[in-house]
Amino acid sequence: MFNIFGRSDSASEIKQINPEEALKIIEKNKGAKTVILDVREPHEFKGNLGHIKNAILVPLKLLPLKAKELEKHKEDDIIVVCHSGIRSHSACNILKRHGFKNVYNLKGGMILWKRLGLDSHND
After folding, report:
1. What digits encode the pLDDT tens for the residues 5-24?
2. Which of 82, 91, 92, 103 is catalytic?
3. What CATH code is carried by the domain that includes residue 105?
4. Which Pfam families does the record associate with it (predicted)?
5. Residue 92 falls in the annotated catalytic set
6. Which CA distances in Å does 13 have to 6, 54, 97, 99?
7. Beta 15-17 vs 77-81: how paired, if at all?
8. Is the pTM of this model over 0.85?
């Protein structure tokens, strides 16, 4: 899809997945080729909603600076998580601009994950 400026509409390129679909991707890859990237702040990561097991915490404001460190995962599936799915969508756009291919935004974020009773950690 093209916008009036002739550039690709990156929002349409971001794959939106729900928690059940995220679990299928994790299971399919047995976790080996799946990165769960949590872009919330540290206090949220350890807060009431917790975080998904084995998630990597990189707050959104630091992601442009840390993208280089994540390059070893450029070909892996990356599920991006935040509180509700808004910051993670922005993070997906940043990753796409840095050449990451298999980027997924977790719709509903940790709010929906927790509401569905899925496992989360507070460590």
Report:
1. 344 444 458 999 999 999 99
2. 82
3. 3.40.250.10
4. Rhodanese (PF00581)
5. no
6. 15, 26, 11, 13
7. unpaired
8. yes
